[in-house]
Amino acid sequence: MTYIVHGATGAQGSPVLAALTAKNHQTVAAARDVSVVDGRAVAVDYSSAESLARAYDGAEGVFVHLPIAPASDQIAFAKTIGKALKTAQPGRVVFSTSGYTVDDDDDGSTGPDTMIRELKASGVSYAVVEPRLFLENLLMPAVHNPVLAEGVLRYPLRENYATSWSSHLDIADVAVQLLTDTSVSGVISVGALPGLLGQDLADGFSTYYSKPVTFEAISPVAFGDLIIPVFGEAAATPVVDSYKYRQAQPHELIPETRSAQKLLGFQPRSVGQWLRDLRV
Question: For the residues 113-121, what does the mean pLDDT come to?
Fold first, then answer.
């Protein structure tokens, strides 16, 4: 049985590929450039339903997430993937929203909302993994280096902003469970419950590094000043805007009713366990 993994050389797909391989499943990386893949790979083009359908044909399962792109491009990609799924009819599809919250009313206008509508219309068994913020954000040099040098975790969230953080490793574990067990479908939210505050994150780093670490809330604009030199203004601006939006929100918690804890019996890693598993 073969599983197709989109983005297998990236932050989200790579852990899924590794987790499937560790369980002795046959895997194929779906990539634009197969020359950068170590292992079995198939060339795909998000704008070509034909190339995607060929990759999906006969597959037991497909893990997919939308590439980082403008909303209009993500919507177009979602429609192309949906067309390919209708043609190829793989056994199972697991889609990660990559941190986007999906619209419960089925009329959202984002790429992930469009992807879910395409999944529903495809006739294929599917599940949607819906995380919030990724712990891997905390390993950006602009965030992680001050932890090591100063014992300070600076991040653009309020001290009292509870968040259902999760890691790419958590998403991979949930994705593999959903790919190989089709008894649970629909949207499964992944993240810590109860949510973690800034100092909870700092405490995890403190335990791992055996040194005091404190949390310091900074403004989204100040965060932008740190990441724009690394990512460029075009890439950093949407990130900064997302944290400006969060400033007006009460929290960022997954709903318990559709949590992986309730639906799958899955408990996301603590910050300390995540750091140990990564061996940072």
Answer: 95
In SS3 terms, 118-170 reads as HHHHHCCCEEEEEECCEHHHHHCHHHHHHHHHHCEEEECCCCCCCECCECHHH
Mean pLDDT is lowest, of 47-61, 102-116, 154-168, 201-215, for 102-116
Q: Taking residues 62-71, report their average pLDDT.
A: 89
CA-to-CA separations, 24 to 3, 27, 99, 266, in angstroms, rounded: 11, 9, 28, 21
Q: Per 3-state DSSP, what percentage of the chain is helix, strand, and coil (rounded to 5)?
A: 50, 15, 35
pLDDT, tens only, 20-65 = 999 999 999 998 888 888 889 998 988 899 999 999 999 999 999 9
Number of Cβ atoms within 10 Å of the Cβ of 232:
10
Confidence of residue 105 (pLDDT cuts 50, 70, 90): low
Helices (H) and strands (E) in the chain, counts: 11, 9
Domains of the chain: 2-124 (3.40.50.720), 136-161+195-246 (no CATH)
Residue 42: exposed, middle, or buried by beta-carbon count in 10 A (0-12, 13-18, 19+)?
middle
Contact 149, 37 (CB under 8 A): no
Tell me 89's DSSP state. -
Contact present, 24 and 110 (Cβ < 8 Å): no
Q: Are strands 126-131 and 93-96 parallel, antiparallel or unpaired?
A: parallel
State how far the Cα of 51 lies from the Cα of 37, in Å rounded to an integer. 18
Q: How many residues does the chain have?
A: 280
Torsion sign over Cα 38, 41, 43, 45: negative
